[in-house]
Amino acid sequence: MLPYLYVYIVAMTSSFFYDIKEFRRLKWFFCFGIVFSLSILYYVRDFSIGLDTYTYVGIIDDVFQIDSIKGVVDYSILYNIEIGFVFFVYLLGFLGVSTSLVFFVSALLIYINLFFALKKVKVNVVLYFSAFFSYCAFFLWSFNILRQMIAVSFVILAVGFLLNSSKRKFILFIILATLFHYSAIVGLLFYFIYHYLDFFFKFRLWLVFFICAISKFILLAVVSYYPRYASYGVGDTANSIGIFLFSFYLFIFLLLGVAGKYVKKKVVEYELFVSAFSIYIGLQLAFIINGISTYGTTRLLIYFLWPSVFIIGIFLINLKESIRYILNCLLFLLFTFYFLYSLNSSGYDYVPFRFLAGQ
Questions:
Q1: Rounded CA gap, 195 and 274, in Å?
Q2: Are 109 and 152 in contact (CB under 8 A)?
Q3: How many CB atoms lie within 10 A of CB 35?
Q4: What is the per-residue pLDDT across 244-303, written as a single tens digit (0 to 9) for each?
Q5: C-alpha to C-alpha distance for 124 and 126, rounded to whole angstroms
Q6: CA angle at residue 49 from 48 to 53, to 5 degrees?
Q7: Distances in Å between the alpha carbon of 315 and those of 154, 308, 318, 324?
Q8: 183-233 pLDDT, tens digit each
């Protein structure tokens, strides 16, 4: 557990100092501390544990043997692996990096994207990254579903461009995300939500019920096009932790949705994220009601989970400083305890390390 805690401490400390105005000249140093600390464990990971780890090692080894761009295209088509990821690995192999460095550079890409997305929609840096350690577990998930997490990070950055009126960059980064994982095409929904924001925000509760009603048809449609997701719709009913997390999500959605009338800063951003998060609430509610396992569905729906991080951050910005400080501390403690719980229950299964092998 100690390697995880070291990373968490360094990342949170760097995030704390990054937010202090007096250390403005050292911002890039603390930025490096955040991104590097979050990425280094990807390099020292072991390949023997993790559902998708051996699959990725096999892909990387295969792509390292390819000697032409045509070979990249042929490999992508033959094995139905997104060409963006295949070309990304091919380029790294051309530069002479090892398999471990591919994982490390992939992690750098994820966290650099998250960092630049934060600069587009500024919220508390400590809570932002601690949320990605805890309930919105980018740090743990990306060790396993690497391609999808790269794609999600591009979607988050794309939405940041959309909110800054850069529609062309939004489309460009959605395309880039889709080149790493086909599921990222759902990121285009953010454009329609943004374009009809007043409608979606006003009728967000109806959107939850509508999504809940049609969710089973959505899942069947996804499975028909992507057989790899067939197992996501079956399994045990959501466990107690899944129910607990959903209760937390629902609390965020209902409380902060109602409190939206008090939001005076970053109103457009707030309404966009609440509207997008309603899709996640509707789908997860349906899966829990139908007794569908939350493991696979969380992977499928992560594109609509991350807005909750910004919802919390923007809401806190609109509070009085004294209240905001207290809530920041309480939420940070909550996120930290949840991260510690995750490590204690299944952390080693997510993130094995070579130097711990055999222990």
A1: 15
A2: no
A3: 20
A4: 677 777 777 777 777 777 788 888 999 999 999 998 888 887 777 766 655 555 566 789
A5: 6
A6: 80
A7: 24, 10, 5, 9
A8: 899 999 999 999 999 999 988 888 888 888 887 676 666 666 666 555 555
- Give the ranges where the chain is alpha helix by DSSP (H): 2-18, 27-44, 53-64, 69-79, 83-94, 99-120, 125-133, 138-141, 146-163, 167-180, 189-195, 197-202, 204-225, 240-258, 267-289, 294-301, 307-317, 321-342, 348-350
Structure tokens at 358: 């055999």
Phi, psi values for residue 235, rounded to 5°: 125, -170
At residue 72, the pLDDT reads 93
Question: And the tokens for 20?
Answer: 């202090």
Instruction: Please state the length of the chain.
Output: 359
pTM value surpassing 0.90: no
Q: Which of 165, 142, 131 is nearest to 311 (CA)?
A: 131
What's phi and psi for 226, nearest 5 deg?
-130, 85
The Cα 107–Cα 110 span in angstroms is 5
Side chain identity, residue 180: F
- 281 closest CA partner among 248, 232, 239: 248
Q: Taking a C-beta distance cutoff of 8 angstroms, is the pair 291, 237 a contact?
A: yes
